[in-house]
Amino acid sequence: MDTSLKDNIHLQRERLAQIVHEPLAHLAEECGRSWGDRDRLNEVLLNGFGRIPHRTFLYCLGTDGIQISDNVADAGILPGHFGRDRSSRPYMQEVVPSWGFLLSDAYISLHAGRPSITALQLVRSDDGSVIGYLGADFDLRNLPLTAVLYEEPSHWRQVKGDPAIRSGVFQQCRVESPMDRSLDRSLSILEELLTQRGVFQCQMHFSSSQATVWTVNDPFRYRVLDHEALNDPDICLVYPQTPYPVDAAIPQPFISPLLGALKPLRLTDETFYLRMSSINLFNGMISVTFSCDGSHYMHYEEFLAKNASFWFGPGA
Predict the structure, then answer these.
(1) Same domain, 298 and 177
(2) Does 269 share its domain with 208?
(3) Based on the domain organization, do 35 and 69 belong to the same domain?
(4) How far apart are CA 64 and CA 85, in angstroms?
(5) Which residues span the domain enclosing 43?
(6) 97-121 average pLDDT score
(7) How confident is the model at residue 73 (pLDDT cuts 50, 70, 90)?
(8) What's the rounded Cα separation, in Å, for the pair 282 and 201?
(9) Which of 83, 134, 272, 277 lies most in the core, judged by the most C-beta atoms within 10 Å?
(10) With the C-alpha atoms ordered 189, 192, 193, 197, is the resulting torsion angle positive or negative?
């Protein structure tokens, strides 16, 4: 997982922990005074339920992971969980830190089959010894978004594909596609769409001779252009002329050289050749996927700086 994505997840979890830690700690103290009495614990959980933000269920567990209360939810006490063994659940496999509070990694719940998180607060007796846990389950759908929307990193990333394809790469050879036979024309049409006709993302499938495009005027729907469309400049007439986005991460003059750089990746080598590529004006990123099923994601400037030897080895 990318480091910046991990950082965003950590920030989200940290802020959620700040929201629920203190009220859970206070409720755990109240539970400790009624420990071992199912009915009294249920009453404590009912009375404290509204003080725990965004919770789905509350319950108490012994140190062995066996539930010693019923589940408490918005609907009240939910029978059927008393005596349940939760010791094998993901949150019980994590170590509660010394300060007594754990916010688990996300997992798929058994109850609803949805991504969830559990908070565990240690419950102590009057002499300070640990006697169990107060558990609080949270459905991710009910949690507030506390971090900014994650942004894709701009550094080069390589992703390996299907091992079966990689192992057989030397047994295959590029077969000329209809798009290959008119590649200059197809790339010119795509340049027009990207720079003048409102297309902000384009996925080019060279082997199957098609492209999938998204436009700024209708960004939630994609359009598929087959070989005939990519070989006919008239296709540009059905896409209204649209100013190039002022907030695009790729400046307009770079679109032509970016598309031009794809041609040798497709045609230079008969074994290692480009199968698919994408350009996103707002991400500023280029992706390329080769016959070995390996994919590369990189900033457009870095992509343009790569020469043939980077892709095909010395002497290419």
Answers:
(1) yes
(2) yes
(3) yes
(4) 8
(5) 3-142
(6) 86
(7) very high
(8) 8
(9) 134
(10) negative
The alpha-helical segments, DSSP class H, found in 33-153 are: 38-48
Mean pLDDT of the 54-65 span: 93
The verdict on 133 and 230 lying in the same domain is: no
CA dihedral sign of residues 5, 258, 206, 265? negative
Token pair 């006709």: residue? 197
Inside any domain, residue 149? no
- pLDDT score at 313: 65
* Residue 209 CA, distance from chain mean position: 29
Whether 148 is in a domain gets the answer: no
What pLDDT shows up at residue 149?
53
pTM check: above 0.70: no
Q: Same structural domain for residues 137 and 244?
A: no
Cα first-last separation, the chain: 32
Structural contact between residues 53 and 23, judged by C-beta atoms closer than 8 angstroms: yes
- Whether 227 is covered by a domain: the verdict is yes
Residue 24's CATH number: 3.30.450.20
Residue with tokens 């998180």: 117
Does residue 165 register a pLDDT over 50? no
Q: Do 234 and 101 share a structural domain?
A: no
Contacts for 135 with CB less than 8 Å, ≥ 6 apart: 57, 58, 59, 60, 61, 86, 91, 118, 119, 120
- Look at phi and psi of residue 313 and say left if phi exceeds 0, alpha if psi is from -120 to 50, else beta: left
Residue 221 has what pLDDT?
94
Are the C-beta atoms of 105 and 119 separated by less than 8 Å? Answer: no
Q: 292 with 169: CB under 8 angstroms?
A: yes
Q: Where are the alpha helices (DSSP H) in the chain?
A: 3-32, 38-48, 163-167, 178-181, 183-196, 227-230, 255-267, 300-305, 308-312
**161 and 308 share a domain?**
yes
Position 6, amino acid: K
Residue with tokens 């070995």: 292
Contact 150, 5 (CB under 8 A): yes
CA distance 111 to 154: 39
Number of domains in the chain: 2
